[in-house]
Design goal:
The complex is a heterodimer. Chain A is of the alpha+beta class. Chain A has helices spanning 6-14, 24-31, 37-49, 51-59, 81-93, 95-117, 128-149, 160-172, 178-188, 197-208, 210-216, 222-234, 243-256, 264-272, 275-285, 291-306, 311-315, 400-410; strands at 318-322, 325-329, 337-340, 346-352, 355-360, 365-368, 376-377, 381-382, 385-386, 391-397, 419-424, 429-432, 440-441. Chain A has 18 helices and 13 strands. In chain A, a hairpin with a 7-residue loop joins strand 2 and strand 3. Chain A has a 4-stranded antiparallel sheet. A 4-stranded antiparallel sheet of chain A has the order 10-11-12-13, with no helix packed on it. Chain A has a 3-stranded antiparallel sheet with strand order 1-2-3, with no helix packed on it. Chain A starts with 5 loop residues before the first helix and ends with a strand. Chain A has 3 domains: 6-91, no CATH class; 97-309, no CATH class; 313-441, YVTN repeat-like/Quinoprotein amine dehydrogenase (Methylamine Dehydrogenase, Chain H), CATH 2.130.10. Chain B is an all-alpha fold. In chain B, helix 1 (5-23) crosses helix 5 (88-98) and helix 13 (258-282) crosses helix 14 (287-294). Classes of the chains: A alpha+beta, B mainly alpha. The interface between A and B is large, with 74 and 92 residues.
Chain lengths: 442, 321
């Protein structure tokens, strides 16, 4: 970035705000792009001069903002009328950036393909003959996809045919590489699943029992966990299954969650709207060296595309324990359903995103990774001693060090599994940093 | 536009009823009148500042009459649009909590208690501080600090302009900044011993301040060039160069694309340089003099920036100010 003369720093620094700080409401509305006209200008003026308020605005940006950035003019004055009018002719020129993204994305995919071929660890499941295909087929197959996936950059309304074209293109290419497989899987709910027997099996398995996948991928947000799982197993961490199956399992399980009863095509639609963001991510992946990073980066884009669960849906779930029974409400507390009714009364619960833990008498501990759709009982054990006393409090903490690491490596804001802390009636504290697989006592 | 007061009132009442309906405030035992009063208070705060002399009790339709009388500062349509853009449901929840409604508070806890902790962790990046920050905010939200027997919840200040979650994050960030600044003042001695050795030379007034007129001209030219910038441009410059924010952070703050921010910074940096040079030459400097005055020693600059950034915000006045 071009440096500015020293005096510019000095004078920028020297200016002090004259008015009082804008209140928290205005700052929030500003950060959420909900202000316009004079109000926005007023806040901008203050922020230009006030370091404290700039810090506040930056610090209060949401932790994981997955909304694709708005496309705005260079000048960014989206609110003024003349600008809005002058934007119309620009629409045509957007074809170029589109192509540019496509080229970048194609490069990213090519890089990932090459990297897939080289480190032997990654593609054990792939027959040797496939390697050649990966390298040759993947780039051309993916570039038309990216090109069409960038369509929303132009303001033309996306039509259903557009979607199917996108999916058809994905599916036309018939290589058997893992890379293609995962791509096809993201479209797989709509178009025919891959003719490959193996992926068909995965699909079938998961339709039968999505809960199984939950156990495979304990981390909270499974869409994100995908990237995490891919990475952690490469790193030799404790993920019990090989990279690709577990990742795909998570993916499919997500699509099968019962509360989303709409037809598959309907489910994919909102996801497809994220294409712009994903194309960009893929392009950015090119900047991240190393096989693990490119792969998990791609994997995450894939996961995002395939995940139909809207964040609002996940966040509206509220929990309560009444008479030892865990209850769930998906309409902000208007109505409640029993979510979990184990043998022993429940005493406490904790939730983070879709990860829910509920604990009760005699060491009863249940975990759901999908907001209570499926549950698995967890038996905390340390050195062959099982937790038998009552669990009185549960806390799910962000494992910030781990998240930081993920963020740095993936250049993307993700959250790994949180650290789970249990307090018991005999004043012990049990903790697990890996989503309940192993435990430590404090 | 002169409107018959009667129809204006009717419309207002209809709108108020619709807003009340949307907010779901009834579930928290907030009456339509109470909710209207809350909306009125918010309207007054943000929209009717100019006609603020109207008495505190005047309700929505009353002030509509007022505004119609004094050639309508704010039309009924504007008010309706303003209210419709508020986060009514979250507003109802927050205000019901502040009023001590048990059910509202339960909902609030269910929705935000857990989030408060992750927010705090995101802000502080440190488990112990996060717990402290979240707990103290939670206490403020509940209104533990009771004065004359009445607990005052911070939630009465929420006005629904942005999301409640965003507001909580902002309030938390403000609290964090306040504490952090305070703390920084108390530990600054340690910092000085750490940093002071290396940067001792930078602490005295910057050297250029002594050499008189050319410097004042430079300042004037720079101020002029900066004054020509839009607020958004200036904010972008300050965030990037002073605060060391990333392009992504700036882009998210302004709702732009990262690449736009990058391009804008390039444009600003080159533009500023040109403008300052032009300003200096307007004041009678030769091209060579002007260039020299602007010449930047990068190390010097880093040093200077560092020393400026480690100053307390409420510290010494800056030169020339």
């Amino acid at each position: 970035m071009t440096e500015v003369p020293k005096i510019v720093y000095d004078r920028l620094r020297a200016a002090l705000p004259e008015q009082a700080h804008p209140d928290a409401d205005l700052l929030t509305a500003f950060a959420e792009q909900a202000l316009s006209g004079a109000e926005r200008e007023g806040v901008l003026q203050h922020l230009a001069l006030c370091e404290d308020c700039r810090d506040v605005v930056t610090l209060s940006l949401p932790a994981a903002d997955t909304t694709p950035p708005q496309t705005a003019d260079e000048n960014g004055v989206r609110t003024t009328v003349p600008q809005a009018e002058s934007r119309a002719p620009r629409k045509l020129s957007l074809a170029w950036p589109t192509l540019r993204w496509a080229a970048l994305a194609a490069g990213a995919v090519a890089a990932a393909a090459v990297l897939l071929v080289h480190p032997g660890k990654l593609n054990q499941a792939t027959p040797p003959s496939v390697n050649q295909q990966v390298a040759t087929v993947a780039p051309p197959a993916s570039s038309p996809k990216i090109a069409s996936s960038s369509v929303p950059l132009s303001p033309i309304a996306t039509s259903p045919t557009d979607h199917s074209a996108f999916l058809a293109k994905t599916d036309e290419a018939q290589p058997k590489s893992e890379l293609q497989l995962s791509k096809r899987l993201k479209a797989g709910q709509i178009v025919m699943p891959s003719p490959q027997a193996e992926s068909g099996r995965w699909l079938a398995d998961n339709k039968k029992d999505s809960g199984q996948a939950d156990k495979l991928s304990a981390p909270t947000d499974r869409a994100r966990a995908f990237g995490y799982a891919a990475r952690s197993s490469q790193a030799g961490a404790a993920a019990a299954v090989s990279t690709e199956p577990s990742a795909e399992d998570a993916l499919m399980a997500r699509n099968e969650t019962p509360w989303n009863d709409a037809p598959a095509i309907e489910k994919a639609k909102p996801a497809l709207q994220e294409r712009e963001g994903n194309a960009e991510q893929k392009a950015q992946a090119a900047a991240v060296p190393g096989p693990a990073k490119s792969l998990s980066r791609l994997a995450m884009s894939t996961a995002k595309l395939a995940s139909p669960a809207s964040p609002t849906q996940a966040h509206n779930v509220t929990w309560a324990i009444t008479g030892g029974v865990l209850q769930r409400s998906v309409d902000s507390g208007q109505s409640w359903q029993d979510a979990l009714h184990p043998d022993h009364p429940l005493l406490c619960y904790a939730s983070r995103d879709e990860d829910v833990w509920a604990g009760g008498q005699a060491g009863t501990l249940f975990h759901s990774a999908n907001s209570g759709v499926t549950w698995a009982q967890v038996q905390p054990t340390v050195e062959a001693r099982q937790l038998r006393s009552d669990i009185t409090h549960i806390e799910v903490r962000n494992n910030e060090a781990r998240n930081e690491e993920l963020r740095r490596d993936l250049r993307y804001d993700v959250r790994g599994p949180g650290e789970i802390l249990l307090s018991t009636s005999n004043n012990e504290i049990w903790s697990s940093a890996d989503g309940g697989k192993t435990w430590a006592k404090k | 536009m002169p409107k018959p007061a009667q129809s204006g009132q009717g419309a207002d009442i209809d709108i108020a009823a619709a807003l009340y309906e949307r907010s779901g405030a009834a579930a928290y035992d907030v009456s339509a009148e109470q909710f209207a009063a809350i909306l009125d208070e918010i309207l007054r705060k943000y929209l009717l500042q100019s006609s603020a002399q109207s008495s505190a009790q005047s309700s929505a339709h009353n002030s509509a009459q007022n505004s119609a009388a004094n050639s309508s500062h704010v039309s009924a349509e504007q008010k309706a649009a303003f209210c419709a853009a508020l986060r009514l449901e979250e507003l109802a929840l927050a205000r019901a909590c502040a009023a001590g409604n048990e059910r509202a508070w339960q909902d609030f806890i269910n929705r935000y208690r857990q989030k408060l902790h992750s927010m705090a962790l995101h802000i502080t990046r440190d488990g112990a501080h996060a717990a402290e920050l979240a707990d103290s905010l939670f206490a403020d939200l509940y209104g533990v600090n009771a004065r004359d027997g009445v607990r005052r919840s911070k939630l009465v200040f929420y006005t629904g302009r942005g999301s409640l979650e965003g507001w909580l994050r902002t309030v938390m960030a403000q609290e964090f900044i306040n504490r952090y600044r305070k703390q920084k003042r108390t530990v600054s001695l340690e910092e000085q011993t750490e940093e002071g050795v290396q940067f001792a030379a930078a602490v005295p007034e910057p050297a250029y301040a002594s050499d008189g007129t050319s410097d004042q001209r430079l300042e004037a030219a720079t101020d002029e060039a900066l004054a020509e910038l839009s607020s958004e441009d200036r904010l972008t410059l300050a965030s990037y160069y002073l605060d060391g924010r990333t392009l992504a952070e700036i882009a998210r703050t302004l709702g732009l694309h990262e690449s736009s921010v990058s391009r804008r910074l390039e444009r600003l940096a080159t533009g500023l340089r040109k403008r300052i040079l032009a300003g200096l030459r307007m004041q009678g400097m030769s091209h060579a003099q002007a260039t020299e005055a602007l010449a930047t020693d990068v190390r010097d600059l880093q040093l200077n920036l560092r020393s400026r950034l480690t100053q307390d915000s409420g510290g010494k006045p800056f030169p020339g100010r």
